[in-house]
Amino acid sequence: MRRLPWNIVVWTLFGLAGCSGPSPVEPRTGTASRTEPLYVISGGWHTELGLPARALSGPLAALKSEFPSARYLVFGWGARDYYMARNPGMTDILRALAPGPAVMLIIPLKIPLETSFGPSNTLIVHVSRDGIERLSELLWSFLTADDEAVPRRIGTGPYPESAFYASAGRYDLSHTCNTWTAEALRVAGLPVSTAGVVFANQVLDQVQPLLEPVRNRPAEH
């Protein structure tokens, strides 16, 4: 979902959305060790989240059987009509400007995210195990599952083995893919605000101070 024309349209219509967003979710605080890696992927105007597949918990762990060979899963959320369009035109862009259904893109990876997306586009923060569990719950809440608690796959994604899944959420200009990313980071326990977040830089600027020097990062298992 890294298509520059959409960025131009959103900037043009930013005034329509205002600076309001969903009510901030209070981060959970505590003394638990922050040993679990959480990846924030920068794709121009769009942000995504990455997790080691082994870290998925609760109902979200069903995705392990969907992508059995993946070491990592990347989650992207956005407007369904635009996100799923192979060659989106102005009609798709304008349709996405109106409130409407959303979709989740899941990208399975066998290689490190830094290798796939580039080190400059991959920000790594660490959260507690409890934070990962809360994040798994949030991600699951944005997926629509069938009667057997299996996420409902609705299309093939743009990357190898990636897939689109029906989402229970709705997209609009006050709750964009970047608002969603900020919300997820906050639920995971990070001091990230969702208020007024529309653009990628509003997420990335908050994540930058949370990055740790490489020498201090916990080893990933």
| Widest sheet: strand ordering | 5-1-2-3-4-7-6
Helix content: 25-40%
Number of domains: 1
Order of helices and strands: HHEEHEHHEHEHEEHH
pLDDT below 50 for ≥5 consecutive residues: which ranges? 1-28
Averaging pLDDT over every residue, what do you get? 82
The termini sit apart by: 30 Å
Radius of gyration: 16 Å
Continuous helix count: 9
Main sheet summary: 7 strands, antiparallel
SS strand fraction: 15-25%
What is the β-strand count? 7
Structural class: alpha+beta
Describe, in plain words, how this protein is organized in 3D.
With 221 residues, the chain is α+β, with helices and mostly antiparallel strands. The protein contains nine helices and seven strands. The protein has one domain (32-211). Strands 5-1-2-3-4-7-6 form a seven-stranded antiparallel beta sheet. The protein is globular. The protein starts with a helix and ends in a 14-residue tail after the last helix.
Using brief descriptors, characterize the structure shown.
221 residues; alpha+beta; 7-stranded antiparallel sheet; globular; disordered N terminus
Give a brief outline of the structure.
With 221 residues, this protein is α+β, with helices and mostly antiparallel strands.
Which helices and strands occur, and which strands form pairs?
Elements: H1 4-12, H2 14-17, E1 36-43, E2 46-52, H3 63-66, E3 72-79, H4 80-84, H5 90-97, E4 100-109, H6 113-117, E5 122-127, H7 129-141, E6 153-156, E7 163-171, H8 177-187, H9 200-207
Antiparallel strand pairs: 1-2, 1-5, 2-3, 3-4, 4-7, 6-7
